[in-house]
Structure formats: C-alpha cells, structure tokens
Design a protein that fits this description.
11 helices, TIM Barrel, binds flavin mononucleotide, two-stranded antiparallel ribbon, 358 residues, alpha/beta
C-alpha cells in the first residue's frame, strides 16, 4: 500500500503507540487456575507488533467471575502470572493494557457455590453463560445493595493497583457487551430507584466511578473505556440509547480519559444511525473503533477522521503479525472459531508469523 495511516504512530502525553493497528480484548479460556502463565505470555508476545494490546477480560474479584477458565487480577499469584506476560510483551517492543472485567448478571451460580450472580436489579433476561460444564441458560440475578456497590467500586481500584504492580501500561474499564457497568447504564437492566438508577446521570454513575478508580491509579491518559451501544449481546437495551451514551462520552471527555474504545461496525443496517461519529465529535482523546473492520475500512476510518486507531479481534487471533501483513499486503489467515475457547495450545500460539513461513 502506497500510504498507510494505519502504520503511522499515534499517542498522548503518556503513551506512544508505534502504529494504529491495535489488538482487541479477547477471552481465550486458557487460564485453568485463573492465572495467566507462560503460554499466555507467549501468545501476547507473538502479537507485540500491535500498537497496543488490550488483554482479554480479566476479572477484578471472585464475584466478577463469569466465564470458564478466564484469568483474574485480584490475587498475588495472578499478579505474578501477569508480570510474565507484561515482561514478555515489553521485551518484544509492545504495550499492553489490562481489561478490567465484572460480568455481573452474565455470570452463573456455578461460579459462586450456587449463589446468585449480582446485578443492578433482579430482572429476568435471556442469555447464556459459559460454565465449566458448558453453556447454561442465564439466571435471574440478585440486586447489589448500596454497600456492595461501594465494595465493587473499591474492587476496581484494587484491581487497577494490581494491574500496575503487574506491569501493565494502563487499564481498560470493560463497559461494553452487557457486563456489569453496561447493566447499570442501560435502563433495560437497571430498575433501581436509588443513587445508581433512574435518570441517565444516576445509571451512568457506576461506570464513571469505576473509571475514576482506574484514573486514581494510572492517571487519565493510561485509562481506556470500552462502550458498545449497538451490541445487544447479553440481552441489553436502553430506551434512550443515543442520549444515554452521549452523556457518558461527554462525562469521559470531562475526565480527560485517554482512550474511548467504541464498538460499532463501519456500517449499520438501514434506519439505524451510526453513533461513532457523534461520540467522536464529543471526545478529544484517542478515539478507537472496532467491530468488523478490515484493512480498507480501517484506513478509511482514519482518513475520514472518524478514528485515531482501530482494534482488530479475530484477525489478530490468526495473524499474530497483523501490522506486517498490512504493510506488505500479505494474505490473511482465517481464524478457527472452534479453538477460540478450546483451552489448548492449538489455535492459540500456533498461528505462524509470515517470517516463519518463508
Ligand atoms: C474469541 C473472542 C473473545 C472475545 N472476548 C472479549 C473480551 O474478553 N472482552 C471484550 O471486550 N470483547 C471481547 N470480544 C470482542 C472483541 O474484542 C471484538 O470486539 C470482536 O471480535 C469484533 O472485532 P473483529 O470484528 O475485529 O473481530 C471477543 C471476541 C472474540 C472473537
């Protein structure tokens, strides 16, 4: 390609990214004891040519767990495990943020000795959980008390401190895909009538206070917030979607958050308004887009000024050297979906780089 903006550097006062080809956060279900290990380190180091790697969703507490074999960031053993990963990525010249994850109602009693998962409100919903015994239907969660909400917010801060101790370059608050912060934000899942429910401002409070916790530890430039207004995954919905999300974007702008990681495909079905351009107008930090982008649509998003960088998910699973492949116009390997969460080395660290194939 004659000129590629994707391959040019970008950054802020704290961080310099070598390119705009970022790796999206992806759960891989390879942490049997919930601790990242050498295998995890190999996988991420193989992908260190990304401008920035977002780690897989990493639970902030035992209560936050909601998926089989996912790693956490709330015990000293987990910090030691992640240290191996961040060191390997840094030695390979990369940068990596930890994605701070609380699954809330999307969890399952199997992860909590039979106790119910927690949520803003005890609302029935239609989804599934990936348990140790396979996929199971979601259950009606129980509502968090106000004291428990404060304790959960404290867990975000503790997890951010643990991420710093583990050598991460920053953290991403997972506010997308129908997990706890999104459950608070959207009115389909939040029926509270106290300080954390009701008006948009009150529903946004949990997400914004979790973001404050991350900022307290890392400073605003090293914090990313991920949002997915257009993704109904986990049976999400909000009656004033655009207004709700634009309130959040404006609040994140006031906090001078470093990265807004906005999930919305480059095009939507007819009749649906794209919200990414609206968010972009309101946010002066690094605006990163994701979902369904390829090299061409990503270049267009950068050239048009829609975004500063693009994250790639499935393409990074099967093309560990994705920026190099974009640079030389090499063919892209397809990802094998059957090994996304299969738990073994196969489909994880065995996708070759171009150089290994020559
Ligand atoms: C195997 C797999 C695991 C994922 N896990 C996460 C996750 O832990 N956190 C998250 O925010 N998104 C997760 N996602 C969504 C991706 O970050 C990304 O949004 C999605 O793959 C769309 O981007 P793409 O079209 O470039 O693949 C996952 C996606 C895949 C394919």
């Amino acid at each position: 390609m004659s000129h590629s903006k994707l391959l040019t550097p970008v950054g802020n006062a704290q961080l310099a990214f070598k390119n705009r080809v970022f790796m999206a956060p992806m759960t891989r279900g390879r942490s049997k004891d919930r601790i990242a290990d050498e295998l995890t380190a190999t996988y991420y180091a193989q992908r260190a040519s990304a401008g920035l790697i977002f780690s897989e969703g990493t639970q902030i507490s035992a209560q936050a767990i909601g998926w089989t074999n996912t790693p956490g960031i709330h015990t000293s053993e987990q910090v030691a495990g992640w240290k191996k990963v961040t060191q390997a990525v840094h030695e390979a010249g990369g940068l990596i943020f930890a994605q701070l994850w609380h699954t809330g109602r999307a969890s399952h009693p199997d992860f909590h000795n039979g106790e119910l998962p927690v949520a803003p409100s005890a609302v029935p919903f239609n989804s599934q959980a990936f348990t140790d015994e396979g996929i199971k239907p979601s259950v009606v969660p129980r509502a968090l008390t106000l004291d428990e909400i404060q304790a959960t917010l404290a867990d975000y801060e503790t997890a951010a401190r643990a991420a710093k101790a583990a050598g991460f370059d920053g953290v991403e608050v997972h506010g997308a895909n129908g997990y706890l912060p999104a459950q608070f934000l959207e009115d389909g899942s939040n029926k509270r009538t106290d300080a954390y429910g009701g008006t948009i401002e009150k529903r946004a409070r949990f997400l914004l206070e979790a973001t404050d916790a991350a900022i307290k530890v890392f400073g605003p430039e090293r914090v990313s917030v991920r949002l997915s207004p257009r993704i109904p995954y986990n049976d999400m919905g909000d009656s004033t979607l655009e207004q709700t999300y634009m309130f959040v974007v404006e609040a994140l702008e006031k906090k001078k958050v470093g990265i807004l990681h906005f999930m919305e495909p480059p095009a939507l079905p007819e009749g649906l308004k794209l919200l990414a351009p609206e968010a972009r107008k309101r946010f002066t930090g690094l605006f990163v887009v994701n979902v369904g982008y390829d090299q061409k649509t990503a270049e267009q998003a950068l050239e048009s000024g829609l975004a500063d960088a693009v994250t790639f998910g499935s393409l990074f699973i099967s093309n560990p050297d994705l920026p190099e492949r974009f640079k030389v116009g090499a063919p892209l390997a397809p990802a094998d979906q059957s090994t996304y969460y299969s738990g073994s080395e196969q489909g994880y660290i065995d996708y070759p780089a171009l150089s290994a194939q020559m």
